[in-house]
Each structure stands twice: as C-alpha cells, then as structure tokens.
Amino acid sequence: MSQIMKGLFFSSCRHALKSSSVVAVVVLLTACSNNPQPKMYGALQAAETAIADADRNGVNGYPSPELVEARNKLQQARAAIEMEQMPLAVYLAQESQVNAELASAKATLIKEQQVNDEIKEGIEVLKQEMDRNMGAGS
Asked: Quick check: 100 and 50 in contact, CB under 8 A?
C-alpha cells in the first residue's frame, strides 16, 4: 500500500512541476512581449532615419515646417523616455516619423514640379524655334 501512495505522490509532484513550468514560461513570454523597449527604440530609430532622409531630400536647404515639427516630436519623445512614459514616447516618435516622411514627400513633389516646369520651358523654346524655322523656310 505504501508503494502505491509513493507512486501517486511522485506522479502528482511531477504533474505539478510540469504545470508550474508551463505557467512560468507563459508568464515570461507575456512579460517579454509586453516590453515596450524594442518597440520604443525601433520607433525612435525609424523617426531618426526619416528625418535624415528628409534632410537629404530637402529643397534649397530650407527645412519645411513638417521637418521642424518632426524634430520637435522626436525631442519630445526623448523627453518622454526620460520620464519613463514609454507609450507616449513611442507615439511621439511615430508622429515624428510621419512628419519627416511628409516633409520628404513634399520636397520630392517640389523638385518634380521644378523639373516639370523646366521641361515645359524647353518645349516652349523648341516650339518657338520651329515656328521661326518654318517662317524662314517659306
């Protein structure tokens, strides 16, 4: 009879250890997945990259209001990190990234419009040359 009791006792201990191990793993995984650090640093890095891209893509060396706002939001995100307000820091970094991307898109649009205007001027000059040559040849 004592052999049966020992077997049941060890069996229930093994089962309890397995269950508690599973619970511990689940708790650790949950804690790691809710850690805002990687998301926060990824958002900061994305914002910094977007700002650098917008700087390179700038028009005539003048920062756009969107780029100024992007820099301000990034500075606010860093301040939020120091105050340990991680969700706010992520949000501000993402806003910074969006503002920088908007600044970059606007700069690209302005450059493309300038190229378009130059092409139109070139076409006008060619038309005038053709008209002059047609008039001289007749």
From this structure: yes
Output the pTM of the full model: 0.64
| pLDDT (tens digit per residue) in 1-41 | 556 655 555 555 555 545 555 444 444 445 544 555 778 78
SS3 labels along the chain: CHHHHHHHHHHHHHHHHHHHHHHHHHHHHHHHHCCHHHHHHHHHHHHHHHHHHHHHCCECCECCHHHHHHHHHHHHHHHHHHCCCHHHHHHHHHHHHHHHHHHHHHHHHHHHHHHHHHHHHHHHHHHHHHHHHHHHHC
Provide the residue type at 62 as one letter. Answer: Y
Length of the chain: 138
In 3D space, the residue among 55, 51, 41, 38 whose CA is nearest the CA of residue 100 turns out to be: 51
